Amino acid sequence: MTAPAPPPPSGGRLDVERAVPVPPPADALVVVDRVSKWFGDLVAVSDVSFAVQAGVTALLGPNGAGKSTMLRMLCGLARPSSGSVRVLGVDPRTEPSAAANIGLAPQQEAVFTHLSALEFVRASAELQGVEHADGEARRVLGLVELDPEDPRRLPTYSKGMRQRVKLAQAIVHEPRVILLDEPLSGLDPRQRVHMVSLFHDLAAHGRAVIVSSHVLEEVERFGSNVVVIAKGRLAAQGDFREIRALMDDRPQRVRIRCDRPRSLASALVRRPEVAGVSLDNNVIEVDTTDAPELARALAPLCVEIGTRLHEVRPLDDDLESVFRYLVSR
Amino acid sequence: MTTPDTISPAASGRLVAASRSIPVLYRLLLRGQLTKGRVVALGGLVAIVVLTSLLSRQATGPDGPETAALFALGEYGIAAFVPLAALLLASPMLGNLVEDRLLVYLWLKPVARWHLAVAAFGAVVSVLMLVTVAPLVVGSLLAGQPGLAGPLALAAVLGSLAYGGAYLFVGVRFSFGLWLGLAYLALWENVLARLGSGPARLSIRSYLMTNVQRGTDIDILLADRSSWAAVVVPVAIALVFVALTARTLTTRDVD
Questions:
Q1: Which residues of B touch A176 (CB under 8 A)?
Q2: What is the mean pLDDT of residues B33-47?
Q3: Which residue range is the domain that position B237 belongs to?
């Protein structure tokens, strides 16, 4: 757990933000305390608190959930409307020196059109006050598997190469806190493996690597800790395996088509794992608390009542539905 | 990667000194501003200076070549060419970085915000002086009015500072900075400033034209500021707007 919340309750459930504030751990590198951010009438982030220690932490949430806004506040680019952010005990918004301990690879693809990768990363190193900026820039470009001697300008790079350049400029000064906004976007599978390995390597050296993503499978590669944000709220935080279990445990809706829907619906109603059944236009929709058990029971049940199955389809087996469930709990 | 125990000096939480950060920022910003479109636009403005200077030499009639040269180099050169060139270069200097969401790469550094404002101003003024002073001096020679060369050069330098600073701020503060700059030139400097002494005092043009007046006996419209104000005010305007730019960089959210 990277978060200040109490240990997870049994049953594979994640900790959910509680009303009672919990003090952050003493070794937290990043502390977010009751932060909200609104733009006019739009509330982008609402009363979010969490803390991040060394290690890889995934900031998970659907598109538009407030992840990028949160990342921008974590590095001081945006001022919280209320609440506070501390990075190594310093407010990154009001204290520019905090940037020495922060590396950010932003989501946007725009790059300086007149620079090569080496020039861009070297300039970043120089502005961070790195000694031997040229040597360090070459070293980190090598780390992300780019050729420092490549004379091409950045706009000619592929999306994956630009992602790696952005990562290189974010880590060239060896910051304690590294914020990566959708960093695997545009990378091929081999590069993804390499990047995830690099994230873990950085984390193993005592750094907090905060990676935002809207793809659950992507977060699975990061392992370890997750902070789930949905609709601007902290939906959950804790170990990734627990959110994976939550996916399986949560109520799900399944659509079934068969030859004798009335008979099957009647039979399903009596099943313990079935919470509700509806029948509309000969299509059955089942709310179940145990989808795997329902899947196991369905075929024998059809044989028993003598019907043929045409379709069995989960209706909410996507990440959005997980987020909706987490928010509604 | 090194461990946190061997963190580089960069991560020690100190601000990078101005002597190190400003040259890097200056180089980055200087290289970025001369896009193909701007070079073509600036080239067109310079060509008009040269052409009108040559034509003014041929002027006949009661007003003569000197009046024609003053019109070409003063009314167009100082009152239109310099501010338009400043608008082309200064307004997008930081404004485009904001629009393209590239400012983050310069902002998220252990660098005082005024370093960025000063470097951007330096990059604007360097190019602006180069593209305005030389054509105006050459233009005065082509027009056969070498006595105007010095006053025009001084006015161009001061104009580069004042308009460069003002438009740098407008570009970073407003998303419609270019249009705001044009509106100031077209409405304030060319219409309102002529209506009374109050608006004229808020016209950069009036200070610059006072400097041009030093090179001729012919009366120039709006050139009625004191000699010291004609030099000090444009410099003060530049300083105020660079300070406002630094403040905007400190207070605004960055995408």
A1: 4, 7, 11
A2: 91
A3: 17-251
For residue B207, give the amino acid letter: Y
Residue B78 · residue B153 · CB < 8 Å: no
Q: Does residue B106 sit at the A interface (CB-CB below 8 Å)?
A: yes
Residues 217-276 of A with CB under 8 A from B: none
CATH architecture of residue range(s) A30-247: 3-Layer(aba) Sandwich (3.40)
Structure tokens at A178: 């590294």
Q: Can you give the pLDDT at residue B243?
A: 98
What's the gap in Å between the CA of A323 and the closest CA on chain B? 26
How confident is the model over A248-266, as a mean pLDDT? 86
Asked if the C-beta of A108 comes within 8 angstroms of chain B's C-beta atoms, the answer is yes
Rounded CA gap, B42 and B37, in Å?
9
Name the A residues in 140-169 with CB < 8 Å from any B CB: 143, 169
Q: Which CATH architecture has domain A250-328?
A: 2-Layer Sandwich (3.30)
> Across the strands, what pairs with A45?
A37
Distance of CA A113 to the CA centre of its chain: 30
The whole-model pTM stands at: 0.82
How many domains does chain B fold into? Answer: 1
**Segments making up each domain of chain A, as ranges:** 30-247, 250-328
Q: Which pLDDT score is estimated for A317?
A: 59
Q: Count of A–B CB contacts within 8 Å?
A: 122
- Using alpha carbons only, what angle is made at residue A235 by residues A230 and A241, rounded to the nearest 5 degrees? 110
Tell whether B109 is within 8 A of chain A (Cβ). yes
For B109, the closest of A106, A127, A202 (CB atoms) is A127
User: What does the pLDDT look like over B98-128, one tens digit per residue?
Assistant: 999 999 999 999 999 999 999 999 999 999 9
What confidence tens digit (pLDDT) does each residue in A177-215 have?
A: 999 999 988 888 888 889 999 999 999 999 999 999 887
Strands A82-87 and A30-39: antiparallel
Q: At what angle do helices A189-204 and A159-171 cross, to 10 degrees?
A: 10
How far apart CA A137 and CA A130 sit, in angstroms, is 10
